[in-house]
Amino acid sequence: MASFAAPQFLYAQSGSIEGQITGSDKAAIAYVRVLITELGIETFADKDGRFVFPKVPIGTYTLSLSQGENETTQPNVQVTTGKAARVESTVDWPARVFIFVNVNAASRRPERAVYAPAAGSVLDSDEIGRESVNQQTPRLLADMPGLEVPQSGLYDFNPNVRGFNHMSNRHILTTIDGRDPSTPEVLGYTEWDAVIHGIDEMKSLEFVRGPGSALYGAGAFSGVLSVTTKSPRESLGGKARMVLGDMNAVGMDLRQAGSLGRDWYFKADAGFRRSDDFARSRVKDVEYRPDLVPTEPVPLQFDRIRIGYGNFRFDKQFANANTLTFEGGNTNSSGPVFTTGAGRAQLTSTNNPWGRVNFSRPNWNALGYYTGRDANNQILLGSGGKLFMDGYNFGLELQWNDYFQHGRGRAVAGISYGRQKVDSADPQDNQTILSKAATADRQGVFAQADYDLTRRLKGIASGRWDAGTLYSPSRFSPRTALVYSITPNHSLRASYNSAFQTPSLVEFFLRLPVAPPVDLSPLEQSLGPLLGSTSLGFKQIPLLAVGNENLPVEKIRSFEVGYNSVIGNRLSAGISVYRNWLENTDTNLLPQVGTSLGRLNPSYGAYRPPSNLSPQAAATVLSALSSVLPPSLFDALSNDANGSPVFALLSYKAFGKANTHGVELDVKYALNTRWRFQANYSLFDFSIEQEAPENRLVPNTPKHQAKAGILYTGKRVDASVRYRWVNSFPWSVGIYSGPVPSYSVVDSNVNYYIDRHWGIGVDAANFLNNEHYEMFGGDLLKRHILTYLAFSW
Q1: Is the Cα torsion angle 49, 44, 58, 61 positive or negative in sign?
Q2: pLDDT given at position 197
Q3: What is the pLDDT of residues 434-488, one digit of tens each?
Q4: Structure pTM?
């Protein structure tokens, strides 16, 4: 509800105003701007036409209602102590096919999308619900302008925007009701099987394109994905859904919400999914490009994905729109295969517990959350290593917002604190992924003010200070923007942003086997007379990807201009043009030696024999090693922290400067209230100022991509067909470097509502079964069709 932005009046005597706006046909009029004329404050009606001003001084007021060029007033609204003044407004406005909806993520407060200082897209609960059966949140983003959503496994997605994607992308900050659901060890990377629950319980999904560190801190490097879920009061009743499909898919979802009395409400949901994955064993051969994609010595441990989840939520409603929320849950996964720069890994058993406590009032929001991950016996298919990870991400945030200068200005401010803790020890207390258990703290302070400089021109200034144990010195991220309203339906914006991304705990402390160890014990035995009692430790020499504690933060500066419009009540159009300047742009896994960058990680220098050997004996050992090892392996031979030999094959390196620029076009056209068409196109290009001859620094992003779709919404049937085309592009992340050919994908779904209780439907991903891959090294994707039967009460 947009009322979160309403100001707090410190008056002893106050009441509230509640209302709903409908058309002459009694249908709700959504997203109307409602202004209390005498006080200069505003809010926005929700999609059901409802609005509320929770705390208003006693008195008589006039409400101004406006939407685009349509305006009207509601006089003589009387507010008395302790009572809600009810306003039922009926307006004789022509039905609007396109309206400027409300968004929250761009400024961390409700505002009209047309006036937001950043490019973005938003889906409401109806749009989300039509595609909820697949329980794959990233697929909801696939049709948005500018976004790439490359997929590998069934739940292995890496959403990104405006270049420099990864197989574990961290440039998009994802929040669910303010909670960060990403993995503690790679903060910013989301395992989407862990957030499978309740897609049709989402109230809205917003994606803001462009840097967002000025309000969100590290992680909002290229964009922000903000998910808001429905409260129990918005989900009253229950729903059961049975899902069947190809790839041996079967699933069940259950949800119940209701009142407990005394203004307490609850919601609980649970379910499971069983399905094959797109992943195939690569022990004998690979699905494509065997000259570039390596085989794996270890077969898949599971041939099916199994996911079970359960969640609960309790809300307490107080007077004056204050709300206290407790919620939590857990997801258990086994079988998903994820592609990383160090190779593919299969999860055998992973628990993802989470919790959130939130207290909100009209001007304040206090949040605390916990996201955990307990992953046992993960299998790295390239080496057979058993991986363990136990960790959590904990966060606290306090946010305030209000109006000033009689409503001409709006302010947002807040403070935050977070902690990560990870430990990759196995039951024998041996670290399996990291070199040591690690903990990191972070804190931030942020603020934004926007002010109506003139009747049509708005200025915005934002800034955030961040400090943390993973980077030094502290960082300040500014944003400035201007938004000019040509008319209520046309606006221009210009903005400048600065953002950063800190390396993750894995990037600092990785110690991961990427292939079976090398046995050089015969060589050590042959050197026995020379070594005496000294051991070289050559029996099982690990081949590792290692972290680099010398990594700096990635930095980006961005300038963007944009235009949004609604033309003739049927055509909606938008364009964004941006240019980014990036530094320290590449932190992918790269060869430790053998490139023009030299030795990437100074902590892993050339191998040194044990110090108690004589110089002559040490030279003999090195000569023997160089004679039996391939040059690339000999150069990668190094010493671990305890002096034992290791092959440091891969490590991280931040290098180079890059410039990126692009154009994003978005058009929607409504033939009538039932038929809609949409299309968008994105152009991306880049230049590298400091490029390695091996061309290892690539943006992993297509130069061109285009999307189009048709949607039909009837009283009992809705259906859509969506098309995506992606231009070919090179991909290079870790051990996977090669081309991604152009591909086209057609998705579709149909939902039929038999009556108010029963519904059936079909969702088809890659309906024409175009076999392709979207990340080099990722799995081949095929058609995936699901059907469902749902009953609501």
Answers
A1: negative
A2: 64
A3: 999 999 999 999 999 999 999 899 999 999 999 999 998 999 999 999 999 998 7
A4: 0.91
Strand 758-765, strand 223-229: pairing: unpaired
Q: How confident is the model at residue 152 (pLDDT cuts 50, 70, 90)?
A: very high
553: DSSP letter = -
The one-letter amino acid code at 310 reads G
**Residues 733, 718: contact at Cβ < 8 Å?**
no
Length of the chain measured in residues? 793
* Higher local confidence (pLDDT), 407 or 791: 791
According to DSSP, residue 509 is labeled H
Burial class (CB in 10 A: 0-12, 13-18, 19+), 529: exposed
Is CATH 2.40.170.20 the right assignment for the domain spanning 111-509+553-586+655-792?
Answer: yes
Q: Does residue 348 contact residue 358 with C-beta atoms inside 8 Å? A: no
Rounded to an integer, what distance in angstroms lies between the CA atom of residue 712 and that of residue 701?
Answer: 32
Which residue has tokens 């030279």?
A: 619
Task: Report residue 65 as tokens.
Answer: 């209602």
Burial, 288: exposed, middle or buried (Cβ in 10 Å; 0-12, 13-18, 19+)?
A: middle
Compute the radius of gyration of the chain from its Cα atoms: 28
Say if residue 12's pLDDT is above 60: no
State yes or no: pLDDT of 694 exceeds 70: no
The rounded percent of the chain whose pLDDT value lies above 70 is 96
| Residue appearing with tokens 């031979």 | 637
Angstrom distance (rounded) from CA 33 to CA 102: 10
Secondary structure (3-state) at 270: strand
Say which range, 93-102, 335-344, 360-369, 752-761, has the weakest mean pLDDT: 93-102
| Exposed/middle/buried for residue 364 (C-beta within 10 Å: 0-12, 13-18, 19+) | middle
Q: Is 47 left (phi over 0), alpha (psi -120 to 50) or beta?
A: alpha
Residue pair 32/72 in contact (Cβ under 8 Å)? The answer is no
Rounded Cα distance between 770 and 295, Å, is: 24
**Separation CA 425–CA 720 (nearest Å):** 48
Rounded Cα–Cα distance for residues 591 and 609 (Å): 23
| pLDDT at residue number 696 | 66
Environment class of residue 598 by beta-carbon count within 10 Å: exposed (0-12), middle (13-18) or buried (19+)?
exposed
The pairing of strands 223-229 and 343-346 is: unpaired
CATH T-level topology, domain 2-96 = Immunoglobulin-like (2.60.40)
Q: Domain ranges in the chain? A: 2-96, 111-509+553-586+655-792, 512-546+602-652
Residue 702 · residue 731 · CB < 8 Å: no
User: Smallest Cα–Cα separation from 453: which of 427, 482, 476?
Assistant: 482
* Phi, psi (deg, nearest 5) at residue 278: -75, -15
Comparing CA positions, the residue from 745, 741, 744 lying closest to residue 778 is 741
The reported pLDDT for the residue numbered 13 is: 66
Q: State both tokens at 62.
A: 């006039």
User: ω into residue 473 within 30 of 0, thus cis?
Assistant: yes
Decide if 228 contacts 196 (C-beta within 8 A): no
Cα–Cα distance for residue pair 270/226, rounded to 1 Å: 23
One-letter identity of residue 435: S
Q: Are the C-beta atoms of residues 171 and 221 closer than 8 Å to each other? A: yes
Q: How many CB atoms lie within 10 A of CB 221?
A: 31
- Kindly report the backbone phi and psi dihedral angles of residue 635, in degrees, each rounded to the nearest multiple of 5, phi listed first: -65, -30
* 29 vs 304 pLDDT, higher one: 304
- Positive or negative, the CA dihedral 504, 306, 330, 153 is positive
Question: Tokens in use for 266?
Answer: 């609850």
**Considering only 1-10, 341-350, 510-519, 544-553, which range has the smallest mean pLDDT?**
1-10
> How much is the mean pLDDT over the chain?
91
- Please tell me which residue, 773 or 16, carries the higher pLDDT value: 773
Decide if pLDDT at 98 tops 70: no
Q: Which residues pair with 750 in a beta bridge?
A: 719, 762
**CA end-to-end span of the chain:** 24
